[in-house]
Write a structure and sequence with these properties.
The chain is an alpha+beta fold. It contains five helices and ten strands; from the N terminus they run ααββαββαβαβββββ. It has two domains: about 90 residues, no CATH class; about 160 residues. About 20% of the residues lie in helices and about 35% in strands. β8 and β9 form a beta hairpin.
């Protein structure tokens, strides 16, 4: 079973749930997941609504195999586990589902509270400078107050943004999305972000941002497993002079992600626009 068939099989036969063990609710639903965690701290489960495990898989990389071989082994092991779960569940009525966007405001528009959800994409690079592995797709959420700091202050062509506006960029420093490996705003030790208006015409101002970030994060809050990151980046934004609002912004960051003795070069893009472009 290839990756496409795996996705189709999941959509047809299962209700996918992404579990963040750091945020389990203190209720009956949380108790079901806590019971699962007694078996292994992570992995893939197929369970009944009552919490009975029908199939389970956890991929452990083989040090004797290269990256591509281990990735194939991960896919193959997942496929076998899914087939086992389908057999164990016996006959089920196929699900009728439709595609939806769970985060319609990711990288687009203003949130209900007046802030924004910036779209973040991060990749790790190998020694040859080429992408290694799938990109990490995440979001950086800014409050209304912090988002306002990106707009030009009245009468100023250059300004420094507060740390609170720069620290949410922490998620752009890691080429993974698992929260135990990703620094959060509270882990950022350096968050320097400044802005300068490059040019202004009758309709808009173009703004350039320059930033530097560093963070120190502990896996599972254990000082024995430090994770440090650093990055530099630049951004370009367009500010509508009539509407007094930003209409688009994009950042490009390059840096390093260090976990243990392994240092991984990273590259990330942070994007946002006020509305979708109109079709030609």
């Amino acid at each position: 079973m290839n990756s496409e068939r795996i996705v189709r099989s999941i959509a047809k036969n299962f209700v996918p749930v992404a579990l963040n063990t750091d945020r389990l609710p203190k209720d009956a639903d949380g108790d079901v997941f806590r019971e699962l965690m007694k078996r292994w701290p992570q992995g893939l489960w197929i369970v009944t609504p009552e919490g009975k495990t029908l199939a389970f898989h956890y991929h452990k990389p083989d040090p004797k195999k290269n990256y591509a071989e281990n990735q194939k082994g991960w896919v193959d092991g997942t496929a076998i586990m899914l087939e086992e779960g389908i057999v164990a569940a016996r006959e089920l009525k196929p699900r009728s589902v439709r595609a939806v966007n769970p985060f319609p405001d990711r990288g687009l528009g203003i949130t209900k509270t007046g802030g924004v959800r910036l779209a973040v994409t991060v990749i790790g690079l190998n020694r040859g400078g080429k992408q290694e592995g799938a990109p990490a797709v995440d979001s950086a959420t800014l409050s209304k107050q912090d988002w306002a700091a990106f707009a030009p202050p009245k009468g100023q062509d250059e300004w420094t943004l507060p740390e609170s506006a720069a620290k949410p960029f922490a998620v752009a420093l890691a080429p993974v999305t698992d929260s135990i490996f990703v620094p959060q705003a509270r882990d950022v030790t350096v968050a320097d972000l400044s802005a300068k208006i490059l040019r202004t015409d009758t309709a808009v101002s173009v703004i350039r941002f320059t930033g530097k970030w560093e963070s120190k994060h502990f896996r599972d809050n254990d000082p024995k497993f430090p994770i440090t990151t650093s990055a530099n980046g630049t951004g370009i934004a367009v500010y509508d002079l009539k509407k007094k609002e930003l209409t688009s912004i994009v950042f490009v960051l390059t840096g390093t992600y260090k976990y243990g003795a392994v240092v991984t070069p990273t590259a990330s893009v942070i994007e946002w626009q006020i509305e979708k472009p109109k079709d030609d």
